[in-house]
Amino acid sequence: MARPDVLFVRLGSTFGLRAAEDELEAALRRAGAEVVAVSAARPREVRTLMATDLVWARAARRAAAVALRDHDPRAVLYSTTTAALLWPRPGAIRFDAPAASTGRHALVVGAGPSGMSAAYHLRRMGHAVTVVDAGPMLGGMMRFGIPKYRLPREVLDAEMQRIVDLGVTVKLEHKVANIADEMREGGYDAAFLAVGAHIAKRAFIPAGDSTRVLDAIAVLRSMEGEDKPMLGRRVVVYGGGNTAVDMARTARRLGATEAIIVYRRTREKMPAHDLEIEEALQEGVMVKWLSTIRAAGDGALTIEKMRLDDKG
Description:
Blueprint: E1 6-10, H1 12-15, H2 18-30, E2 35-39, H3 43-50, H4 58-70, H5 73-81, H6 83-86, E3 105-109, H7 113-124, E4 128-133, H8 141-144, H9 153-164, E5 169-172, H10 179-186, E6 190-193, H11 216-222, E7 234-238, H12 242-253, E8 258-262, H13 274-282, E9 286-288, E10 291-297, E11 300-305
Parallel strand pairs: 1-2, 3-4, 3-6, 4-5, 7-8, 8-9
Antiparallel strand pairs: 10-11
Helix pairs in contact: 4-5, 11-12
């Protein structure tokens, strides 16, 4: 079978999304896309397709797997209504520019998922749009917070470029210090602030002056540069969310012989997606359940064992 432009997994009959899916599929075909549509009611067929060369983005396989496994309405909505964003072959589909201009000019501060989504919708409405970002590349936390093995950069770059090709102006490494001055100097009619959430949550761990404690967001952000962080042979990650799992798997990819997650509860109560945990374990990441870090210093950690009470 020739490679289609989009693999479209339909789950509408289960959650009342059939009309929305019909509209999306029709729009894709009108745009000239070759679409392979399959029903999640036939999971064997879906998984067979996902195992072939029909899907290019690993993120697409992950989203579909989560939806098929959990039948979570949120996962279903995510993996069907955004199929055009997750699963097209890079460069296969282009958005049509608006037929008419409104004469209005909108400023979008931030080139992450929120800012670029706003730019897309504003441009489709006919407004001129300028996106400014203090960083050197488009994508925000999609680029600087999600590892490449989860979101391939060729897929991300292609999606960003599709929005830019609508006629969106982009100014990178442009920091907005005063929004009122920026709007007045640029002659903008409206502004959308999408500055993101780049500040990590930090847990208090008593540590000596020589102890090396890093936050996961800073490490994941540094992975996008040419100089990769030097983490050492043994890396301990404190936490149980998806970011903690990303950090442990990234440490393994950087050459750590031991990557250990320390989590204060059990696997059943771990907030990270079970699929992520399973893949991490398969890659050699170890997990200390029912544990917390009491102190750090002099090249050693003090681990305290926990016990769940009736309240969890």
